[in-house]
Write a structure and sequence with these properties.
Layout lengths: L5 H15 L9 E4 L4 H5 L7 H8 L4 E2 L6 E9 L5 E11 L2 E8 L8
Antiparallel strand pairs: 1-3, 2-3, 3-4, 4-5
Length: about 110
């Protein structure tokens, strides 16, 4: 003889599953990648080596094994399950030295 009846088991399963999809569940902010500021970019000057650029900006999020003339610094932020916002900075090199960058910056970096 079972301790639980079928209706009790069904109710327990229903309540468990409902708890997973309950609209009041707390959702955290999620940020990933490199936080690069306008001030960081302003401190770069033409002719810096890759290691000097990385000492300012940190290690890039993405490196391209085929084209080593670019480094990609990508930052994404999602506030409590909402829309994902992205910032992307591409650093360009020629012969191992910084030449310029291209940036699609967020108005405000919403880091914690």
């Amino acid at each position: 003889m079972s301790k639980f009846s079928a209706p009790t088991a069904a109710l327990s399963l229903l309540l468990t599953l409902a708890g997973c999809a309950f609209p009041g569940v707390y959702k955290i902010n999620v940020q990933q990648g490199n936080i690069v500021t306008r001030e960081d970019l302003a401190s770069l000057s033409e002719g810096l080596t890759r290691s000097q650029v990385r000492s300012v900006l940190g290690t890039p999020m993405v490196t391209n094994p085929v084209d080593d003339e670019k480094d990609y610094y990508i930052y994404t932020f999602q506030k409590q399950g909402g829309e994902i916002r992205e910032q992307k900075v591409v650093i360009y090199y020629a012969d191992g030295q910084f030449t310029h960058y291209q940036a699609d910056m967020l108005e405000k970096t919403p880091a914690y």
